[in-house]
Amino acid sequence: MGKRKRPINFDGKRLFFSIQEVADHFAVNVSLLRFWEEEFENINPKKTKGGTRQYTKEDVMEIAIVYRLVKEKKLTLEGARQALRSNKSFEDIRIKTLSRLSDLKNELIELEKEFESLHQHQKYSNKTSKD
After folding, report:
1. pLDDT at 3 over 80
2. What is the pTM of this model?
3. What structural domains does the chain harbor?
């Protein structure tokens, strides 16, 4: 049984994420992220003086593109590099669109919860005013 994904919450005010958080986001080992960093020039997290990797949201989006090409589309590393060179803008737009759709879905879920809460409150208020 494989690792389970633990999505990063990008809604917070954090600017950087650890390599473990990013690995958990994609359900991969940290060694794979280090390997991809060597293989793909678009993956380039900031490093502290001590060498600790600090990933931004943009870094995670770059990894998402590579992840999709290698893990989901099953391209070889060379095939993924070629796809990045030729279709970078298309993949980038696709990943950003999917991310925005996910954000919108979460916003709609929150609105639905608020609506239900208001509806329940209104139902309760109407019952007590009739009594």
Report:
1. no
2. 0.65
3. 19-103 (1.10.1660.10)
